[in-house]
Amino acid sequence: MMPDLFLEERRHIILSPGAILLGGFALNDAEKLLVQIDHLATFSPFRHMITPGGKIMSVAMLSSGTLGWVSDQKGYHYTHTDPKTGKSWPPLPPEFLALAQNAARSAGYHDFKPDSCLVNRYVPGARLTLHQDKDERDQTAPIVSVSLGLAAYFLWGGLQRHEHIKRHKLFHGDVVVWGGHSRLAFHGIAPLEEEIHPLTGSIRYNLTFRKSG
Ligand SMILES: O=C(O)CCC(=O)C(=O)O
Ligand SMILES: [Mn+2]
Prior knowledge:
The protein has 213 residues and is an alpha+beta fold. The chain has helices at 4-10, 30-43, 94-106, and strands at 12-16, 19-22, 60-65, 68-72, 75-79, 116-122, 128-131, 143-149, 152-156, 166-170, 175-178, 187-189, 204-210. A 7-stranded antiparallel β-sheet has the order 1-2-11-8-13-6-3. A 4-stranded antiparallel β-sheet has the order 7-12-9-10, with no helix packed on it. Strands 4-5 form a two-stranded antiparallel ribbon. β1 (12-16) and β2 (19-22) form a beta hairpin. Bound molecules: 2-oxoglutaric acid and manganese (II) ion. Manganese (II) ion is lined by residues 131, 133, 187.
């Protein structure tokens, strides 16, 4: 059994000014969120996008909201329609929006109005290399990032690529919010380890909420 003291300590961890890990914040909503992910995937299927450099991403993605993040050989950008289906991205489920806004508020960001949720799907070995979220026109709004399923190491750096990187293990139900001074901090996900989660098997999902337009 994990001692309560440890749980208490995990609850809120400041990663850097304006960036906070809300341990277990989404735990009570997790099963509802997983059902919604499956539902979204029936409208916009998960796909492995191509980086501008021509590599296939190891993480599979889909988007929801009025704008969706896309990577292709032209670069990283937001689109109103899913290039795979030619249709609008599926709307943000109300459960997603409520959770993102509550998490932002708990982190001190009171007026978060995300218009986009990128859903990332990782299997063991998949990773996201160090990057900044900087394709959004509005960079005053924070990022809200929800972890579900398998745990993963979150790499958290500074505003410059060469700054020291810390590793924070993100568990099912954890939420990270970053904005303000840390809005353009470098971050990434280390290659997932081979494990099994009781709800998702060998999969980690991440929901990244952004105000992009
Ligand atoms: O999977 C994660 O926790 C991070 C995802 C991320 O940084 C992104 O989608 O830009
Ligand atoms: Mn990111």
